[in-house]
Amino acid sequence: MYKNQLQELAQRSCFNLPSYTCIREGPDHAPRFKAVASFNGESFESPHHCSTLRQAEHAAAEVALASLSSRGPSPSLAARILDETGVYKNLLQEIAQRVGAPLPQYRTFRSGLGHQPVFTGIVELAGITFSGELAKNKKQAEKNAAMAAWSSLKQRESFIILLLIK
């Protein structure tokens, strides 16, 4: 999933496609792999050894996407594309799965005039509710809520500790 998202980001932003290099360690009967994803002039290494090359490449792509998304919302092309691909919703789902919490639950509320509606998105994750910026449609409202949740969570020390434990 992460390799696909990173490739989609590259294609949408006219960057070169990501490339992967692999480090193999261990005996033939029990090899371990680490991968490095090279993307847009940056390198992102898988945080741990994996039992397959595929897992190591996905882990490196996950690090790349997390790093790019952690730069937060900005008018830059990469941030806009990350938002368009829904990476923040995917990151929230991954967090919930890692910590054993229920999947994020989204709600949208409509307001404004009938011909010019405005939508507010709310996401609940592990008992915490986050609200995003106003949007012109429900889909974008959910993405905005996910982006707000991710931005808030990455600033919390307990969130970082939970990710490190898993």
UniProtKB/TrEMBL annotation:
<dbReference type="InterPro" id="IPR044451">
    <property type="entry name" value="AtDRB-like_DSRM_2"/>
</dbReference>
<keyword id="KW-0677">Repeat</keyword>
<dbReference type="Pfam" id="PF00035">
    <property type="entry name" value="dsrm"/>
</dbReference>
<keyword id="KW-0694">RNA-binding</keyword>
<feature type="domain" description="DRBM">
    <location>
        <begin position="1"/>
        <end position="70"/>
    </location>
</feature>
<protein>
    <recommendedName>
        <fullName>DRBM domain-containing protein</fullName>
    </recommendedName>
</protein>
<dbReference type="GO" id="GO:0003725">
    <property type="term" value="F:double-stranded RNA binding"/>
</dbReference>
<dbReference type="InterPro" id="IPR014720">
    <property type="entry name" value="dsRBD_dom"/>
</dbReference>
<dbReference type="InterPro" id="IPR044450">
    <property type="entry name" value="AtDRB-like_DSRM_1"/>
</dbReference>
<feature type="domain" description="DRBM">
    <location>
        <begin position="87"/>
        <end position="155"/>
    </location>
</feature>
